[in-house]
Amino acid sequence: MKIAIVGTGYVGLVSGTCFAEMGIDVTCVDIDRKKIERLEKGDIPIYEPQLDEMVVRNVGEGRLKFTSDLKECIGNVEIIFIAVGTPPDEDGSADLSYVLDVARTVGRNINGYVLLVTKSTVPVGTSEKVRATVAGELAARKVSVPFDVASNPEFLKEGSAIKDFMSPDRVVVGVDSDKARELMTKLYRPLMLKSFRVIFTDIPSAEMIKYAANSMLATRISFMNDIANLCELVGADVNMVRQGIGTDTRIGSKFLYPGCGYGGSCFPKDVKALIKTAEKEGYPMRVLKAVEDVNETQKLILFRKLSSYYGSGVKGLTVALWGLAFKPETDDMREAAALSLMGILLKNGCKVRVYDPVAMDECRRRIGDSVYYATDMYDAAEGADALMLLTEWKQFRMPDWKRVKSVMKTPLLLDGRNIYDSAEMKDAGFDYSCIGKK
Q1: Cβ density class 194-225: b for 16+ within 10 Å, e for less
Q2: For the chain, which terminus, N or C, has the lower number of CB atoms within 10 Å?
Q3: Are both 179 and 122 inside the same structural domain?
Q4: Is 28 annotated in the active site?
């Protein structure tokens, strides 16, 4: 089976590599020629555990190829996946220009049947826009070529994307023809052999499932952060509260960990897009608007704790940040709490020292040299008036606290992910504060 995947970002590159690992002939397409040249040399532009060796292996075995020209492979593939970016417009709605550009290219060049599958996260109704765009190009050519569209949203978690793809909770496929269902069944048969669930739906439902799933998870995070903030005020311990409600089988324990806000490429963008989709239909998503508001406020909670501790102002303080990526095992800083926090610290006259195991280059690309980039976690803490933990990398879980305290000016530790024990930190000589515990 031969397929093409347009877009070599996180979703496209991981999906293409994993399909190749399953024995499928995959061509990954991207208009960025320099990016394609890097990939052909085995230089992976994103950080994801195991991805680099999988790319090199499958390129070497001839199952994975890269090109910057979609027209080259259109006539040789049965399925074309659209995995391009859908960044938010200024109003928060999803920008579909890249998706529809792919559809136009397909419509201008197909001469035989092809199934065009949207894998990018897109609003309900996008597949019909893709269908209309292809049909319009075919009409302009005055030709009749059969094609189908389908929706196959991804549910990959950064840091565990390979496992998520190869051993998924479920695969959602939206189709409206027997031919499309037959092809998608053939494509995912290797996963179905292990009894993994492939859920076939209509196309609008498949498009909605991705947004609904991410919005529900974001809601749980913001809800728990709201509860954590109240716990601090009334003297409750959010960790005990979390355990108490998480054991309720109707609720479950996942995504109930309080912290300094969610980020990344999915939750913030998808919540905004779903709010905008509803607004276009005249329906206000009141819960999701509150979810978004809580999250934006939560990203600055450590700054509020810092201000409360010092009272007279924070200007001139040196603040160390451990962790820049929005979560461990990725260099992704999109919508990361670190960006909001660095911005307000610098605006208020603080000196900022940062360290992250993999996201240092990404941080420098985003904000330049306005902060000090440390060589390791201890260098970051040098002379600091406060140390803030933002990303729960394993490297940060059991540092040499004596060494940390010896290099800091003031032993103030603000834990934005609740990974440390308060009694242990007190014994180590730190003034310690986490989320949701007085």
Answers
A1: eeeebebeebbebbbbbbebbbebbbbbbbbb
A2: C
A3: yes
A4: no
Beta strands per DSSP E along 261-317: none
Terminal Cα-to-Cα distance of the chain (whole angstroms)? 58
Residue type, 1: M
Q: Once rounded to an integer, what is the mean pLDDT over residues 49-53?
A: 92
The overall average pLDDT reported for the chain is 94
- Torsion angle defined by CA atoms of residues 17, 336, 293 and 276, in that order, rounded to the nearest 10 degrees: -40
Q: Which value, in Å, is the radius of gyration of the alpha carbons in the chain?
A: 24
277 and 311 share a domain? no
What does the block give as tokens for 383? 């002379």
At 247-283, the pLDDT tens digits run: 999 999 999 999 999 998 889 989 999 999 999 999 9
Q: Which helix (H) or strand (E) holds 292?
A: helix 286-298
Q: Which of 184, 201, 30, 212 is nearest to 123 (CA)?
A: 212
Candidates 18, 73, 260, 266; catalytic one: 266
Total-model pTM: 0.88
Residues 161 and 40 in one domain: yes
Pairing of strands 197-201, 351-355: unpaired
pLDDT for residue 177: 97
CATH of the domain at 235: 1.10.1040.10
Could you report the per-residue pLDDT of 187-236, keeping only the tens digit for each? 998 876 666 678 999 999 999 999 999 999 999 999 999 999 999 999 99
> Which residue range is the domain that position 215 belongs to?
211-296
**Lowest mean pLDDT across 27-31, 118-122, 305-309, 317-321:** 118-122
Cβ neighbours for 29, distance < 8 A, ≥ 6 positions apart:
4, 5, 6, 7, 8, 66, 67, 68, 69, 70, 73
What percentage of the chain exceeds 70 in pLDDT? Answer: 99
CB 1 within 8 A of CB 187: yes
Within this chain, do residues 271 and 170 fall inside the same structural domain, yes or no? Answer: no
- Classified as helix, coil or strand, 192 is helix
